[in-house]
Amino acid sequence: PRTRRIFDSTLVTALRDTLRRVLDQAVRDSAFPGAYAVVGTSKGIIADHGAGRIDWAPDAPVPTASTIWDLASLTKVVSMTSAVASLVDRGLVDLDAPVRRYLPEFTGRGKERVTVRHLLTHSSGLPSWRPLHKEADTPEARRALVLATPLDTAPGVRYVYSDLGAITLGFLIERVAKQPLDEYVARRVFEPLGMHETRYRPDSSLLARIAPTEIDPWRQRHLRGEVHDENAFALGGVSAHAGLFSTGHDLARLARMYLNGGTLGGRRFVAQRTLERFTSAQDTTISRRALGWETPTGSNSAGRYLSPRAFGHTGFTGTSMWMDPERDLFVILLTNRVNPSRQNTRISRVRVALADAVVQTVAAHGGTPRSGAAATSSSPPR
């Protein structure tokens, strides 16, 4: 992309080499058939690299900027969290209001005390998951099961990463916005940001560009262009916890907006104050979660060197994205590590290796591309 011209050529070359080294080694280690990584700042993309192939077949294409990936749980931040931030910013949702204010059918013992903030920080008391795809036969019946699921613990007491909480937030968004989730995020987030390749339920005309995921034992076929997550599929393909498909360069636009304090191309998408609330850890006695987003813990996919102000998320299919306002840096990794089976768990090491290698490379070339000096809080040794 033309934006690379604004960066020092030695940094561009060094980061390309870093991406190539980490990802090509991961392909050799069979962590995934293919991957695409993008690194940049608020100003633009510095470097990207496609490794391996989008499928294990020897004639499958190499991943490129136009390859479309199943984002899995990145949906929770790219779609759901962006939508809630938009509604909060517009004064339509209060983070500390009970969920029942917006969804009266969210019923059960203790659920009157569950707030929107609890759902966003995975501290609502809801269990992590249930097999909706096997428990009911229609999207409507599965929706009813989600809303009727009893709490495991009291709200605000314990962190449990919950797909059910995220799905509930999707229902809340639709109720407040008065339109389907996919339509709201397309109109309010993706289209204005120029994220033209980001969508739920991609059309069959895009199949050649979509990286296949698992040979799914439940659906008895190799999945390509339909969401990998069984519950998202059973809910009709559109959900707040999974279902979104996108490209590396589309996600780079979202990352740049966050690093620019809520603006991109001179247009404001969310107030900086709202963005800072959503990307800051909320209750560190329970977890390091922000609103929707993760923050670095020292043991998660952020690696060792991103600053405490960083925020990001991962997806089950092998996706991740991290943004660090202190360094003015984003790192996006898109893979299909569940191809052909979800039993392949080598992705965890690759995520950390990539984040660490990128920060080390940037530090070795003068620090953050914005400031020209290395960040101090967690800089790697030179």
Provide a concise account of the structure shown.
By secondary structure, the protein is an alpha+beta fold.
Give your account of this protein's structure:
The protein is built from eleven helices and twelve strands. By secondary structure, it is of the alpha+beta class. The strands form four sheets. The protein has a five-stranded antiparallel beta sheet, sandwiched between helices. The chain has a three-stranded antiparallel beta sheet with strand order 3-7-4. Helix 2 packs parallel to helix 6 (163-177). The longest helix has 20 residues, at 9-28.
List unreliable stretches of 5+ residues.
370-382
Termini Cα gap: 30 Å
The count of DSSP E runs of length 2 or more, i.e. the number of strands, is 12
Helix content: 25-40%
Mean pLDDT comes to 94
Could you say which overall geometry the principal axes of the C-alpha atoms support?
Answer: globular
Question: Main attributes?
Answer:
globular; alpha+beta; five-stranded antiparallel sheet; 382 residues; 11 helices
Task: Explain the layout of strands and helices.
Layout: H1 9-28, E1 34-41, E2 44-52, E3 69-70, H2 75-89, H3 116-120, H4 132-135, H5 139-148, H6 163-177, H7 181-193, E4 199-200, E5 215-216, E6 221-222, H8 230-234, E7 244-246, H9 248-259, E8 263-264, E9 267-268, H10 272-278, E10 311-315, E11 319-324, E12 329-335, H11 347-364
Antiparallel strand pairs: 1-2, 1-12, 3-7, 4-7, 5-6, 8-9, 10-11, 11-12
Helix pairs in contact: 1-11, 2-6, 2-7
